[in-house]
Design a protein that fits this description.
Elements: H1 3-15, H2 19-29, H3 44-53, H4 68-77, H5 96-100, E1 102-106, E2 121-125, H6 126-132, H7 137-140, H8 157-166, H9 168-171, H10 174-186
Antiparallel strand pairs: 1-2
Length: 187
């Protein structure tokens, strides 16, 4: 039975006062997800290792992504041109943060029984991560094979390290300090 038909039946059953049958249909058509797996810590070093492994490439669609420290450094060096808001308020954050900031995504979501380890994560953009949410790739019609890596792309990680080392303004930012340490440890 399609989910739309199931919802139609549930509505009809609830209207007729048959909440028991409505609950049975809902359970069958929309089974509850398994209890989520405990999510482990993904500090900057661990994230950076995955980003490097994946070549700073969105593994779903093959687009280049930029090392988080680089994007933050741009905001520090040119705040009027490349604004950043610590809570990512969309009207106060440059759109490149959404489209080019790498994050990890659990291929099989934790809420759907996926493992919380490197074998079940890929690099993608914040925008795609938000769009995917707890869906399976097949449910979204997204490619299930990993996109090829972008050739010779380092996510501007080397640029970030070089600029951080020579620019005192960047070295005074605590968030940049953690990304610099992550880059040096993971690289």
């Amino acid at each position: 039975m399609s989910t739309i038909k199931a919802l139609r039946q549930v509505c009809e059953m609830l209207s007729s006062g048959d909440s028991v049958s409505a609950a049975e249909i809902l359970q069958t058509a929309f089974p509850p997800p398994p209890a989520p797996t405990h999510r482990s810590s993904w500090p900057p070093v661990r994230l950076t290792k995955v980003f490097i492994r994946d070549g700073f490439t969105d593994r779903y669609f093959g687009e280049p992504l930029v090392f988080p420290g680089t994007l933050r450094a741009l905001s520090v060096l040119a705040p009027g041109l490349f604004p950043y808001h610590r809570n990512w308020k969309q009207s106060l954050t440059h759109p490149a943060y959404w489209s080019h900031y790498p994050t990890i995504d659990h291929i099989v979501p934790l809420a759907r029984g996926g493992k919380d380890d490197e074998s079940n994560v890929v690099t993608t953009s914040m925008l795609r991560n938000a769009a995917k949410s707890n869906w399976l790739l097949s449910e979204l019609g997204w490619p299930t094979a990993s996109a090829p890596l972008v050739d010779s792309w380092d996510g501007l990680l080397v640029w970030f390290c070089r600029e951080y080392e020579k620019n005192e303004k960047l070295r005074h930012e605590s968030s940049l300090r953690q990304w610099y340490k992550a880059a040096k440890s993971a690289h």
